[in-house]
């Protein structure tokens, strides 16, 4: 499902960029359709929805693993007389312990929260049951007006339009970093797999 996450991020990147420059060129309309349905109608929407749901699990587990590694590094540095804060700085950077893993850790740390916001709001349109749950949680007596306001709030949080150009640029950076996560993840997987293979006789 990683390839579909890359597609979602790349097309989302184009859509947000188009919003920033105020363009409705065919490339941005193409990106919007690919982002929502993969040009495959309801079937494509289902694929994107399930890939997005799996991305939610991956980001949460990624933060858990990142936290575990950061705590372990902090203890190691502390034993050597260093600062535990140094572990946080290293793990939030883009170079430790090597270029590939550093990019994966750093990109995941800085883009994870914005991506979670995009995912949680995007799932509102991906799964009917999830959308009904969100609207039920924020239901009020003035349901018509509130639902309309909630829709625009969710849309603003998903596309990054909640704070004008600042939030759009912030979302643009987060999505750009998000595009690298499956790529660096694959690189680390294949590198580890290559190292684990027995040497040829």
Structure notes:
This protein has 8 helices and no strands. By secondary structure, the protein is mostly helical.
Keyword list:
201 residues, 0% strand, 83% helix, mainly alpha, single chain, 8 helices
Low-confidence stretches: none
- How many extended strands? 0
Instruction: Average the pLDDT over all residues and give the rounded result.
Output: 90
Q: How far apart lie the N and C ends?
A: 36 Å
Shape: globular
What percentage of residues falls in helices of 4 or more residues? Answer: over 70%
Biggest beta sheet attributes: none
The topology string of helices and strands comes to HHHHHHHH
Number of helices: 8
Q: What's the quick description here?
A:
With 201 residues, this protein is mostly helical.
List the SSEs and their pairings.
Elements lengths: L1 H20 L4 H12 L3 H39 L4 H8 L7 H28 L1 H10 L5 H17 L4 H33 L5
Helix pairs in contact: 1-2, 1-3, 1-8, 3-4, 3-5, 5-6, 5-7, 5-8
């Amino acid at each position: 499902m990683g390839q579909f996450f890359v597609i979602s991020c790349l097309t989302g990147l184009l859509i947000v960029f188009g919003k920033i420059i105020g363009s409705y060129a065919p490339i941005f309309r193409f990106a919007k359709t690919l982002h929502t349905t993969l040009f495959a109608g309801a079937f494509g929407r289902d694929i994107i929805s399930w890939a997005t749901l799996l991305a939610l699990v991956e980001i949460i587990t990624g933060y858990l693993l990142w936290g575990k590694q950061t705590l372990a590094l902090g203890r190691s540095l502390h034993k050597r007389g260093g600062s535990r804060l140094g572990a946080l700085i290293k793990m939030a950077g883009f170079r430790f312990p090597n270029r590939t893993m550093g990019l994966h850790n750093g990109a995941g740390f800085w883009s994870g929260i914005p991506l979670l916001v995009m995912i949680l709001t995007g799932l509102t349109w991906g799964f009917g049951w999830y959308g009904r749950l969100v609207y039920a949680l924020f239901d009020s007596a003035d349901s018509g007006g509130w639902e309309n306001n909630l829709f625009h709030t969710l849309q603003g949080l998903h596309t990054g339009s909640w704070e004008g150009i600042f939030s759009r640029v912030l979302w643009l950076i987060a999505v750009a970093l998000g595009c690298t996560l499956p790529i660096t993840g694959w690189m680390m997987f294949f590198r580890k797999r290559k190292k684990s293979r027995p040497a040829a006789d």
